[in-house]
Each structure stands twice: as structure tokens, then as C-alpha cells.
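lol ok so funny story. i was supposed to be doing the assay writeup but got distracted and ended up predicting the structure for this chain instead. priorities right. anyway since i did it might as well share w the group, maybe its usefull for someone
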Amino acid sequence: MSVFGKVLKLDSTKKICKKLSGEGKGTAEWCTNVENERGQILTNVQTCEESVEKLGPMAAGLTSRYRKAGEATPQVMYVDRGCCAAYGVSSVEQLFGEWVADGMLTRLDAFHWMHRFDAAVRTDHHPKYALFKSALSAAVFAYNKEDVGRLIAAIRAGDPTRFNSLTDEDLMASHITKEQLKHYVRRVTVGAQARDICQGGVHHQHTQGSGANGRQPGPSVQGHRRHRQGLGGPAEAH
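and the output, tada:
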């Protein structure tokens, strides 16, 4: 059974190819995946270079699969680079021209977008670098409200007597770990307006010298006020 999706991500890495051994060792340099909004791999290809020519057959095969199955064109494709071009058509638009012509958007994914700030700021040698990137991540991402509610309910059900007197905020601050949030709660991106406001606050805090309190802000909770762990603020899921 074929796998499809409405929100796709195109990503290439060299790490997988470096692990090839035996006769396959050294035969490929890039491993390129296309995955959907559920993290399922739609297609995978290993190539000697990351170019339109080498990735063309993969893109053609994927668009053909959608067409033959009667699936609608994906709404958006997130990429690690090549989402736009100063002049002409970007490489992603060349690869998936059929979908782009039918309305699919190409966007830089949030992780690589945040790393674009590295070109304009001092990197990890600066004492505030980790704090700045953590605050920037908190301005972009939020925890899914429904998932957080289910996790809180599960924690309370484990010991109703002990946790009955605690508010949700107190429970999150003292009894829910980062690992639990990582495994059981999805993260969503905040709306553009909320993101811009938060980014302005991050920039002001760190350029005015007031961001050196050592606290690591975390993503907010969708639709909640900010808690003591930095959990709160509106969000939009993709």
C-alpha cells in the first residue's frame, strides 16, 4: 500500500552514505528522503551528487505515483535549502514543477531557518549562543495543547491522591520531564504574528544584555499562558 501526505519534507544527508560497507561503500554520497507529516518515508534515493539531474527520476516517480493514485497535490513541501532563487526557478521548483504549477508551496523548514541566524551572530563560542538558540526555538515552536492535556491526565491517573492538589502548571513544572514531552507531545509552529512578536523579544533581550540569567526557555503550550518552565502562548499546527 502506497504512502502519501499533504505536508511533505525533502531532506538530504551524507551521514547514511558514510555507513555503507561492502560492495556499496563509496558508491553514493547523498541520501535523499521525502517524508510526510506523520514522519513516514514516501521515497528514498542515494545519489553521487545532489542535483536536479540526479534527483529528477525520484521526483518524477513520486509525482507519477500521486497522479496514478488520484491523490491531490501536496499543500507544501519543506526543504533544508533550495526553496527559493534570487533569479529564475529554484531547484525544488524544477524537480516538482508539476506540483508547484498546481499550487504547492515550497518553504524552508524551521530547523534550518533558525540556523540561518548563524551567518549573522557569533556561534557556539559565545556564552549566550545556546541561550539565544533555545529562546529562538521557543519563539517558533509550541507544544500541542491536546497532547499536553492527555499527558497531564495520564500523570494524574498514576497517583490521583498525590496530584489532586496540584494545578496543571505545578504538575508540569515539577513532575513532567523533558523526555516525556519529547516522546508523548507533538510540537507545532506558532502563527506568524506571534512568532514575529516573540522573535522581537528574543532579539531585544539578548542585544540589551538582559538574557544572561542562565535559564533555558522551552516551547510554549498551544493556547496556554506561559508557565514557569516557559510553557505558554498561541500556536498553529501544520
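The beta strands are 7-13, 30-35, 41-47, 76-79, 105-108, 141-143, 187-189, 220-221. Residues 210-216, 223-238 have pLDDT under 50 and may be disordered.
back to the writeup now i swear
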